[in-house]
């Protein structure tokens, strides 16, 4: 009888110790989770401070009168966007993280970078060229505009990204093969003699654009709108694409 009592007491003591252990583990886990959350918040704040500093420095470079400094700013912005793309989500699909996630701010910066570079292309392409305007390629006339357009065309595109706005840009002679430009707004843009072979232009807005001599062989133009776009006999098209049905019209002289 006494043995059974001692055995029961031992089981009760063991159960009590187990409950204490479970409670300790739960408390420890909550504390560790809280510490981890605090660390992530601190990392996010530190990361945002660094990203803001890098962004400010790149913007200052964009305003320089020296071409090489402007190019440095453009590629600096590309690095910011690339880091944001790596932290924005899994498998290339955008998934908004919590505000305490270190990847939150860089993922926002990348979209801001694309808007800044798009505005740079729209405005700078209309400024006096770096070399005489007779140059046949954009790179020869305005290498910084070509660089900015190239960066935009090779960016990582994530689900939910807004379409680029390059409306009215003067991009004659731009070389953008395989560029990622789905849904891009190129209304009224000058793309004469541009190289857009194998570019992603599905859903693009090319209304009123100048496409005389543009090379679009292999490009994805599914759902693209070309209402009022002007083309020439030298314009190259993807196999089977009906540019007339898309709204483009053939002209003899393609002037802006």
Topology at a glance:
Layout lengths: L1 H61 L4 H22 L15 H21 L13 H4 L1 H11 L76 E2 L17 E2 L6
Parallel strand pairs: 1-2
Helix pairs in contact: 1-2, 1-3, 2-3, 2-5, 3-5
Description:
This protein is mainly α. Among the domains are: about 35-90 and about 100-130; about 165-255, E3 ubiquitin-protein ligase SopA (Pectate Lyase C-like, 3 Solenoid), CATH 2.160.20.80. Helices cover about 45% and strands about 0% of the residues. The protein has 5 helices and 2 strands, in the order αααααββ. α1 (about 1-60) packs parallel to α3, α2 (about 65-90) packs antiparallel against α3 (about 105-125) and α3 (about 105-125) packs antiparallel against α5 (about 145-155).
Mean pLDDT: 81
Strand content: under 5%
How many angstroms does the end-to-end distance come to? 107 Å
Secondary structure category = mainly alpha
* N-to-C series of helices and strands: HHHHHEE
| Principal-axes shape call | flat
Low-confidence stretches: 39-44, 90-105
The strand line-up of the biggest sheet is: 1-2
Reported by name, the CATH topology of the domain at 163-256 is: Pectate Lyase C-like
List keywords for this structure.
256 residues; Pectate Lyase C-like; mainly alpha; 5 helices; two-stranded parallel ribbon; flat
What's the quick description here?
The protein is mainly α and 256 residues long.
């Amino acid at each position: 009888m006494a043995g059974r009592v001692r055995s029961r007491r031992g089981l009760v003591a063991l159960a009590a110790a187990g409950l204490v252990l479970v409670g300790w583990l739960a408390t420890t886990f909550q504390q560790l989770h809280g510490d981890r959350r605090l660390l992530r918040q601190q990392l996010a704040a530190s990361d945002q401070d660094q990203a803001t500093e890098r962004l400010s420095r790149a913007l200052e470079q964009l305003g320089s009168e020296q071409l090489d400094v402007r190019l440095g700013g453009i590629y600096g912005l590309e690095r910011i966007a690339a880091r944001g793309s790596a932290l924005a989500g899994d498998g290339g699909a955008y998934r908004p993280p919590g505000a305490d996630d270190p990847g939150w701010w860089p993922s926002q910066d990348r979209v801001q970078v694309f808007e800044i570079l798009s505005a740079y292309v729209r405005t700078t392409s209309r400024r006096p060229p770096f070399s005489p305007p007779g140059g046949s390629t954009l790179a020869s006339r305005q290498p910084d505009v070509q660089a900015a357009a190239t960066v935009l065309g090779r960016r990582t595109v994530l689900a939910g990204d807004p379409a680029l706005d390059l409306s009215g840009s003067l991009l004659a002679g731009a070389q953008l093969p395989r560029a990622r430009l789905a849904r891009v707004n190129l209304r009224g843009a000058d793309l004469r003699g541009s190289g857009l072979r194998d570019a992603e232009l599905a859903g693009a807005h090319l209304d009123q654009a100048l496409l005389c001599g543009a090379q679009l062989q292999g490009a994805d133009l599914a759902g693209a709108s070309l209402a009022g776009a002007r083309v020439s006999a030298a314009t190259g098209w993807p196999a089977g694409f009906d540019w007339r049905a898309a709204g483009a019209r053939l002209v003899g002289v393609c002037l802006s």
